[in-house]
Amino acid sequence: MVTASADSTTKTQGDNLRLTCTAESNPPPSTFKWYKSDGNIADVSSNGLLDISNIARNQGGIYRCEANTTLVPTNGSSITRSESQTINISVLCKYNYI
């Protein structure tokens, strides 16, 4: 089972954002991949964290964390299993008044 840090979150542009993805599996996941809603990979890590510094408005949207676990049976080929979870990020405009 894959769990993201929240279902959704709201940030103001310029804030820092940390998303956390965890998975319960044995063996533990070998990689976590974060995808943005456009299908591009936002990050690949072994710890499930996605850090975005100084977030911009165009970085808002739906992100998907995918946990990949590779099983290596004693007889046969390795098998990779994947599970994913989504999180919606809203980024509010930060106005500077003079």
UniProtKB/TrEMBL annotation:
Composition-biased stretches, type Polar residues, lie in 1-15
* Keywords on record: Disulfide bond, Glycoprotein, Immunoglobulin domain, Membrane
Kindly give the SUPFAM superfamilies that the UniProt entry links to this protein.
Immunoglobulin
Chain segments carrying region Disordered: 1-25
GO MF entry, a single one: cell adhesion molecule binding
Q: Which Gene Ontology cellular-component terms appear in the entry?
A: cell-cell junction; plasma membrane
Where located? Membrane
| UniProt xrefs under PROSITE patterns | IG_LIKE
Query: Which residue range or ranges hold the Ig-like domain?
Result: 1-88
Membrane association type: Single-pass type I membrane protein
**InterPro entries of this UniProt entry?**
Cell_adhesion_signaling, Ig-like_dom, Ig-like_dom_sf, Ig-like_fold, Ig_sub, Ig_sub2
Task: Indicate where this protein is primarily found.
Answer: membrane
The reply to whether Disulfide bond figures as a keyword in the UniProt entry is yes
The UniProt record lists the keyword Glycoprotein: yes
| Protein name as it appears in the record | Ig-like domain-containing protein
Which species is this UniProt entry from? Patella caerulea (Rayed Mediterranean limpet)
